[in-house]
Amino acid sequence: RGGNAIDAGVTAAMALAVLQPDIVSFAGVAPTLIYLREEERVVSLAGLGYWPAATDIGRLMREGGGAVPEGILRHVLPAAPATHIEALRRYGTISFEQAVTPAYELARDGFYTYPVLHDVIEQHAARIDRFPENASIFRPGGRTVPVGQVMKQTNLAKTIFRMIEAERACNGDRERKLRAAHDCFYKGSIAADIAAFHAREGGFMTQADLAGFEVPVEASIACSYRGFEVHSCDVWCQGISLLEGLKIVEGFDLPKLGHNTPDYIHTIAESLLLAFSDREAYVGDPKFVQVPVAGMLADDYAARQRARID
What we know:
By secondary structure, this protein is mainly alpha-helical. It is built from 16 helices and 7 strands. The chain has helices spanning 5-19, 57-64, 80-91, 96-109, 115-123, 125-128, 132-138, 154-169, 174-186, 189-201, 207-211, 239-249, 254-257, 262-282, 293-296, 299-307, and strands spanning 32-36, 41-45, 111-112, 150-151, 217-219, 221-225, 228-232. It has a 3-stranded antiparallel beta sheet with strand order 1-2-5, covered by helices on one side. Strand 1 and strand 2 form a beta hairpin. The longest helix has 21 residues, at 262-282.
């Protein structure tokens, strides 16, 4: 419709959050990479929320029994809306309303439940039923929405429309209007509702947490792989695991092994296991943890890791 690739990417990502609610949330995470062709560089939007200021680590340990508890205590700051709006503001051309309308319509009017979504919801039915709001959407009346039946997410549609209305009501240029949509979520009525829900349910998040949330725009991290330059977001996510896994398998003749043969799958799996082991050992929030990125992606380290695979 006349927009650019970033407009299209943001539009698709927000629609995906409605169509695949078992995978990603409209107010969840949105790690984003953008290739700026004219500048020949890649930028990363750090679309991952951090923990609220009042987070009580002792309580997490007590209530989680060694894992982060399910439910309200698991909530980090919702990063996706801010990330998508920032991508539009810096690199896009269209309004928030234009970008979000497909997601809004899919949430408001629904879409036909498809087999994979039905099966995932059915698989996790007992966990979904623990949370009345989720159950009312995905398992109304205690029954997973059947394949081919329309699934609506009415409350999500109402939330999206509040952001659309905020943009419409703002007098000013495109940037001010985009900021109005952002502020509706992070500083306005939606933020107040989120904070009230946390207060009622015993969560950590406050209006001050939400009001202070902005999405950093930063350099990506990258490695070379067989003549290609492969990028990921920084170590606040697990993208480095893909890069390290590629460096390890780079020394194998994968075509010779044969696609999806036992030897091929074994090689890929063990390479990824080594990379994920390093994730557990070394990776953390770069604001607090010194992650040895260069070492993890070095050719000589990849060769040592590769030699460990039998």
